[in-house]
Write a structure and sequence with these properties.
Largest sheet: 5 strands, mixed
Radius of gyration: 18 Å
Order of helices and strands: EEEEEEEEHHEEE
Low-confidence stretches: none
CATH class: Mainly Beta
Shape: globular
Number of domains: 1
Strand content: 25-35%
CATH topology: Protocatechuate 3,4-Dioxygenase, subunit A
Mean pLDDT: 89
CATH superfamily: Aromatic compound dioxygenase
CATH architecture: Sandwich
Structural class: mainly beta
Length: 200
């Protein structure tokens, strides 16, 4: 007896709209109702997430976390946590639309030193979505800090030809704030793909 073949299905995870709350993509405030932090420069970080062949990633989830404008984290492992910006959440979540586009409102992060050395201002991003077997993690650097970027231990671990894929590009002004564009290519030619880092 012949059996019908099993139909193909897209691998999850799938995220419902209820997974997101108002202002989840705004790192500058503790809640949707809270006033935004007034410390530092407010910026917009936006871009597009693409699969191989330039296909948009629809309903992908991006999570961002970063230091405040002075390079501090409101976390017990930061020795200067007591000095961290009390109005800055430093974590946010966004999802991609039908064109694979996402956006965060945040503050330009400050530099800081950790066990690896002097870190340049950066935002950490995690990407989750249908068809991804694990979270992908990368780091966004900013063009304002070329000397700090060149000395950053994480960026320095990446071959120099791939550095442009980890530095956001100026993208105009939006609502009085500088915007930066950071596109993510999940897979493609080696010179086009976004470098991702292993969890550790």
């Amino acid at each position: 007896m012949s059996l019908p073949p099993t139909s193909q299905h897209t691998i999850g995870p799938f995220f419902p709209r209820t997974f997101f709350q108002p202002a989840d993509n705004d790192l500058t405030r503790l809640t949707a109702e809270a006033a935004p932090s007034m410390r530092g420069e407010r910026i917009i970080l936006r871009g597009q997430v693409l699969r191989e062949g330039g296909v948009p990633v629809v309903n992908g989830v991006l999570e961002a976390w970063q230091a405040d404008a002075a390079g501090r984290f409101a976390h017990p492992e930061d020795p200067e946590a007591h000095l961290a910006d009390p109005d800055f959440l430093g974590w946010g979540r966004a999802w991609t639309d039908a064109d694979g586009r996402y956006g965060f409102t945040t503050l330009l992060p400050g530099a800081y030193a950790d066990a690896t050395g002097q870190r340049a201002p950066h935002v950490n991003l995690t990407i989750m979505g249908a068809g991804l077997m694990r979270r992908l993690q990368t780091t966004v650097f900013f063009p304002d800090f070329p000397a700090l970027n060149a000395a950053d231990p994480v960026l320095s671990a990446v071959p120099a030809p791939h550095w442009p894929h980890l530095v956001a590009l100026p993208d105009g002004i939006e609502d009085g704030s500088r915007a930066f564009r950071f596109d993510l290519r999940l897979r493609g030619e080696p010179h086009e793909e976004t470098p991702f880092f292993e969890e550790g």
